[in-house]
Amino acid sequence: MNTKAIIHFDGEGALINRNIHGHFAEHLGRCIYEGIWVGEDSEIPNNKGIRNDVLQALKELEIPVLRWPGGCFADEYHWKDGIGPREGRKRMVNTHWGGVVENNHFGTHEFFLLCELIGAEPYVNGNVGSGTVQEMQEWVEYITFDGESPMADLRRKNGQDKSWSLTYFGVGNENWGCGGNMRPEYYADLYRQFQTYVRNYGENNIYKIACGPNGDNYYWTEVLMREATPFMDALTLHHYTIPGPSWQEKGSAINFTEDEWNKTIERALYMEELVTKHSTIMDKYDPEKKVALIVDEWGTWFDVEPGTNPGFLYQQNTIRDALVAGVTLNIFHNHSDRVQMANIAQTVNVLQAMVLTEGDQMLLTPTYHVFDMYKVHKDAVSIQVQENSENQDLHISASKNQKGEVHLSICHYGIKEAADFELELRGWQNAPTQATGTILTADSMNKHNTFENPEVVKPSTLEGINFSEEKVSVTIPPMSVVVLKIN
Amino acid sequence: MACKGCLLEEDWRNTSVQTLVDEQLAYETELVSEEHYKQRLTICEQCPSLLSNTTCKHCGCFVGFRAKLSYKSCPYPGEDRWKAV
Questions:
Q1: What highest taxon heads this organism's lineage (chain B) (predicted)?
Q2: Burial degree of A282 (CB within 10 A; 0-12, 13-18, 19+)
């Protein structure tokens, strides 16, 4: 099938905020414990308790922002349990997520260390559901206040003399569900109250994030925007890609049919409608787009791997997940005027993870490779691509970076036929002279990496790119994520 | 979409770990002998990495499942504790 597209070099859109490529790490299953934190006494090589292999992989990914500690965990988390000498910290069973013993060894200090080591901006999610205004106020004071105060002094006593820099702070999580089963009217009032005490200390300026809707709950967005727009910098949205008919039958991460592949892609593409419609409501109250839409939970959600603790949400990751990541990031790029951050769920060992670990082993998933390939779009200017296609199986985003290089991300989510892709270049001051590309693909739809064979799905150079008369043409195999560079 | 925490509780309410293990093992063919299985489980029961008497913290598996599979090793970091059996 043929796909023709036109790219206008001067057809510039909004800057693609690097935070659109953000991540999420919750105290859930083996994401934090074992996945990131193994402790200083572990047999696994580590840096102050954080395992080196995962650290290196995440560092190479150049994660811009990392959300923590939840998720549902955030609205049951009491931050004072996670500071001070580790041997004295509270131990409890995390009943939410599989009966894991939560020993609070990974707390505020460890999170800021992790962010520093991987170079990510911290995004802390505060507790509205079961916390207090005072608790939230004191956490921000503990983290960001450099003067003399009870919380700043406590931080110093715990070994951190200088305050940390913290921009992104979420006031509650999923308050329509696990965060308190609230009505939007009630949460809007609570949000207004709680955020009042999320103070700016010194030069630290907090970017306040309100809990937004679940999926297509447009009423929630309407109420929050109507009641609280002046008090927020951003509103969140959560949408998971679940191919099955119910939570009890989400479908296997590996053993799935062509119908399930198609259903998965269809539900991932639903993000386009969600972002568009929520943005339209936001436009009504905020036409200048001062309030951002942050999609701080997204990704695939399948049945857990056979024989694993269901509360751990451990699933494998195939080329299908790579396509979901690719099309979703494309959607965010194309809506970068309103979407300023997104955080895939989750970073390690949970849902659509970047890396999987088993004991002292680690592997990179196909989703990791997509994020790695897509790094080129960070802080670049979005460019609209005009498509004239017989093929409905391609999904594209494009951007231009500061050097004037153009990158196209092309997801071919068809299962069987290759696509002949032709791109016409228009409006370039200096005609480009070359095009190169990287491809992530597989010869069957359930290909994935295992600890025995960790490089089954990995990127390679895209061959067969033709460049002539301001046209680029290339054949793209099915089940592929491609990034083209034109300069 | 309902809260995922509540949904998980609902999943668990009517299903025991043994039922989950039995259901999944029914699909497996590469199994160790019953004696070998018991030896592996005895090691797991004494392991500090066993959570809630059911789950290995290093791989997230129910040990009653993983210990039955002949192609799996013990994931204890730096030390396959099943190697001796």
A1: Bacteria
A2: buried
